């Protein structure tokens, strides 16, 4: 991919949400595509065939997914085109935000918790 959205050769990038200067590599040397502080990212690689490759929207963290091997993934949704993507959680990612997203389905269920008392 080339052009203004190409971050594959950058050593750092600026977070689109909080403005933090972020290393493009984690401590173990793997590539990072989201801010470890606020977990937001930029939509620079379209995963949908025929999608808007130059979307450049802000990718907001919306959920945590756990793979079969136990690894956690941050699920992002593009604020501009609604595409969903996921990326691995890094050791230096904000643990408070990760846990808040992980427990949200239990803390805010789509039904009243009082219904369990009637079962």
Please tell me what the overall shape is. Answer: globular
Unreliable spans: 1-7
N- and C-termini, Cα separation: 55 Å
Structural class: alpha+beta
Residues in β-strands, percent:
15-25%
Please state how the strands of the largest beta sheet are arranged side by side. Answer: 3-4-5-6
| Record field, number of beta strands | 6
* Biggest sheet character: 4 strands, antiparallel
Evaluate the radius of gyration. Answer: 16 Å
What is the share of helical residues? 10-25%
String of helices and strands: EEEEEEH
- The overall number of domains is 1
The overall pLDDT average reads 85
User: How large is the count of helical segments?
Assistant: 1
Characterise this structure.
This protein has one domain. Helix content is 11%, strand content 24%. The protein is built from 1 helix and 6 strands, in the order ββββββα. A hairpin with a 6-residue loop joins strand 1 and strand 2. The N terminus is likely disordered.
């Amino acid at each position: 991919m080339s052009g203004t959205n190409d971050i594959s050769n950058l050593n750092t990038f600026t977070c689109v949400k909080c403005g933090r200067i972020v290393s493009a590599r984690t401590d173990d040397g793997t590539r990072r595509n989201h801010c470890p502080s606020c977990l937001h990212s930029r939509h620079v690689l379209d995963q949908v065939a025929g999608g808007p490759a130059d979307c450049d929207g802000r990718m907001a963290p919306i959920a945590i997914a756990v793979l079969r091997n136990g690894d956690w993934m941050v699920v992002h949704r593009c604020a501009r085109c609604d595409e969903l993507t996921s990326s691995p959680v890094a050791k230096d990612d904000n643990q408070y935000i990760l846990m808040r997203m992980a427990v949200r389905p239990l803390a805010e269920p789509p039904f009243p918790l009082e219904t369990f008392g009637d079962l």
